[in-house]
Amino acid sequence: MKVISAAGAESHKDNVPDISTVAPMRMKTNSKIRILYFIDFIKTASAGTEGQLLKLIGGLDRKRFEVGLVILGRTEWIAENRFKLGCSVHEFEIREFSKIRTYCEIYRLYRFLKSWSPRIVHTFFPVSNVVGIVLSRITGVKHCLSSRRDYGQWMGPVSLIFTRLANVFAEKIVANSGPVKEITLRREKVNEQKVGIIYNGIDLADFARRLHQVKIESVRKELDIPDDSRVVGCVANFRAMKHLHTFLEAAELILQERKNIQFVLLGDGILRHDLENLAGRLNIKGNVNFLGRKSDILPYLAAIDIGVNCSEAEGLSNAIIEYMVAGIPCVVTNAGGNPDLVKDGATGLLFELDDAEELARKICFLLDHPDLCRRLARGAYDFVSKEFDLGTMISSYDRYYTGLLTGEL
Question: A Pfam family matched by this chain, by name (predicted)?
C-alpha cells in the first residue's frame, strides 16, 4: 500500500471576504431589532441547515433581538417542539403551488408580515428564498437576506428562474463556505458584493462535555459490535448527492480482507431501501448497521473509529465538523466544501468522488496507523476550534445584521 501524501489542498477561504471580520457596531436606538426567519420545514434539529438555524435563534441576544420563525410546511417535529424554541413560531402551508389553498396561505402570510413588521427577514431553503423574500419586500421590509448552504444540485431551470427573480428583492445572500459562494455567483449571476460568508458553528464546550459523559461500551453493546471490531461510520441523509453507495462498495472491498470491521450508517431518507438492498447484493449486511435518524448522534460518534463523507456537493458539512470535534479521523471526498475543512494529511484524508477503491485503501491505512489517526484528530480539532465555534458564528450574524441596519456593511 502506498503512503498517502500529506500535501494539503488550498482553502477557498483565503480568496473570499469573511463577514466575521466586520467591526462590532451598535444601533443608535434602544428598541429591539425585530428579526423574522423563514424556513420551508424542520423535520429534525439534527439536520444541517435546520440545526444551524435553531442554534442561531437560540444564541441571539434577546436584549437586542426579538425573534420570530415562519415555517412554510407543517411537520411533526414542529408540533412537538414549537414551545421549546424560545421564539414565536408561525406556521403556513406553502409548498404545492398547483393547489388554490397554497395561494390562500400566501395571502395569509402577506397579512401576517404586514402586522408583524420585521426590520430584518432572513430566509433558508428554496421556497422561503423565493416566497419569503418577495413577500417581505412587497410588504415593506427593507432588509431581506437569503441563504445558500449547498451546491444547488436540486435547482432545475424553473427554480433557477424564480430564484434569480427573488434575488432582485434580496439585499444580501449569505453563504456558508467559499465554494458555495462561488457557485452562487456563477449560477445565479449576482454581484459579488451581494454575497458574503458566515461559516457554520458548533458549541464546542457543550459537545466536549456531553462526549465525556458517553459510555462507549454501552453504545457498542447496543449496536451489538464485538469487542475486537473497529467501527467505520458515515453520518448523512440518504439522498443521491450523498453517494452512499460508495461507502457500501468500499465496505465490501475492506471486508474481503478484514472481518473485524463494522460499518455504521447514521441517517435516513428516500434511498434507504435501495441502500439496504445494495448491502444485501454485496453480501455485507452482517457487518453494516443502518441506525436510522437519531435526535442525538453524539453517543454514536463516540463509538466510531473512522468517519467518512462520500458527498458530491456539500456546502460545509456539519457531519464532518462533528467528526473533527469528536476526535474522529475522517476520510472525505475531494468535492464541494469538504476541502475547506479537511486538508489532506493534516486534518484528515481526501479521496476522489465515487472511487470506492481509494476510500477503502485510505480507511485501511488509518486503521493500521494509530499514530497518524491521533495526529489528524489533533489537527482537526485545533482547526475547528479556531474557525467554527458557535459563539463566533452567532457574533458574526449579530454584527452582520447590525451592519445592515446602520448602513455600514
Answer: Glycos_transf_1
